[in-house]
Amino acid sequence: MIKVATIAGSDASGGAGLEADLKTFEEYGVYGMTAVTLIATMDPDNEWAHGVYPLDEATLRAQMQTIFKGVGVDAVKSGMLGTEYAVDLTAEYVREYKVDRYVLDPVMVCKGANEALNPGLNERVASKLLPLSLVVTPNLFEAGQLAGVDTPSSIDEMKEAARRIHGRGARNVFIKGGSKLVGASSATDLFFDGTDFNLVDGALIDTKWTHGAGCTTAAAITAGLALGLDPYEAVSRAKKFITLSLRGGFALNRWVGPGNPSLWRKGFN
Ligand code: PXL
To answer: What is the pLDDT of residue 180?
Structure first.
């Protein structure tokens, strides 16, 4: 059995975070494990405002020991880390266990917000984790932050950000969210392996129910890598996976709605 792990937050509403990762791993037919960094909650009495409850360092380290020393992994993903020690433990275990297929999803904000929750932490993620990553999966905002430039607003600016992020140590850079560029008529993401740029195109799905799309995409890339795909193949398949999932997007309540990754299993691919 192919085994993958996610080091991520739990989203109590189930659409993002490690819940999205596990659902995606299941669709890919790989065995998923979790090191929980924090629990994210949403307040129905206060416009779905997010609460963040980190787990302490010893609890996180114990989960890392379970996974890396106790079992072993074919690929690893990290998502919302939330604390300095979660960043440091991720770097320590990826390095010590020589994890080659490590996907860094540099989660800085939940959807809607466009302000980094913790700029100091983002810099720590960039300096400690980019050099260990096989693939990094920023959205436009995160790409700007990692690259030290304004949020890209054109394909050329996405390319420049990708170049800079590659220069900081990521072996492959996948910038998501070209659909947000002015006038975009398709969902165009950008893949850069340090030599060539590839535009990864998908249909632009007209839905506001996209909660967890970033987590799902990075989890799909991780599972694809674990199954032996090369980075570009893994990204291309993940793009099909998330496009299909978003076609099945649905409302959980008036504030939030996730995609539906199970459409993949149901044969809509
Ligand atoms: O989608 C970003 C994200 C990642 N991880 C967790 C989250 C969210 C957004 O809600 O809750 C745990």
So the answer is: 83
Ligand 1 atom, smallest distance to 105 CA: 4
Residue 264 is assigned to a structural domain of this protein? no
Answer yes or no: is pLDDT of 216 > 80: yes
CA–centroid distance, residue 2 to ligand 1 (Å): 25
Task: Indicate whether 266 belongs to any domain.
Answer: no
First to last CA, the chain: 23
For 241, the token pair is: 């996976």
Q: Measured from the CA of 10, which atom of ligand 1 is nearest?
A: 12
Tell me how many domains the chain contains. Answer: 1
DSSP for 205-247, written as a single string: ---S--BTHHHHHHHHHHHHHHTT--HHHHHHHHHHHHHHHHH
Query: What does the pLDDT average to over 137-156?
Result: 96
Q: Ligand 1, from 42, 48, 80, 139: best to mutate by most atoms within 8 Å of Cβ?
A: 80
Per-residue pLDDT of 3-23, as tens digits, reads 999 999 999 999 999 999 999
pLDDT at 114: 46
User: Which structure tokens are listed for 75?
Assistant: 């690929």
In a domain, 269, yes or no: no
Find the CATH number of the domain harbouring 60: 3.40.1190.20
* HSE of 57, CA atoms in CB hemisphere, 13 A: 6
- The mean predicted confidence, pLDDT, of the chain is 94
Round to whole Å and give the CA distance between 234 and 113: 28
Least confident of 23-27, 176-180, 222-226: 176-180
Which residue range forms the structural domain that includes residue 188? 3-257
Question: Does residue 267 belong to any structural domain of this protein?
Answer: no
- Mean pLDDT for the stretch of residues 118-133: 93
